[in-house]
Amino acid sequence: MKLVNQYDGKYPHFAIESFIEYSGMTKEEIDKVIDSFTNPLIFKQNEDGIFFRDPDGNLIKNFEIV
Questions:
Q1: Which listed residue, 4, 18, 40, 44, has the most CB atoms within 10 A of its CB?
Q2: How many CA atoms lie within 13 A of 21 on its CB side?
């Protein structure tokens, strides 16, 4: 649970540039794939299904996981 609370919903800033270079995908394409695997029961969305993110790009949870 400690690792879930520490990493779940955190944006992978440390690796995104390397993955863009490796895959040839754009950041927007990668974000779309990441969001397709995101659980909407855990993370907040607007009425259009877009996930809410904090200023650092991390997902915002609907509730705290303990």
A1: 44
A2: 4
Domain containing residue 3: 1-59
Rounded percentage of the chain residues whose pLDDT exceeds 70: 100
Q: The pTM is what?
A: 0.79
- 19 in a domain, yes or no? yes
CA gap 28, 62 in Å, rounded: 24
DSSP-based helix, strand, coil % in the chain, nearest 5: 40, 10, 50
24 lies in some domain: yes
**d(C-alpha 51, C-alpha 4), whole Å:** 19
Residue 66 lies in a domain: no
User: How many domains is the chain built from?
Assistant: 1
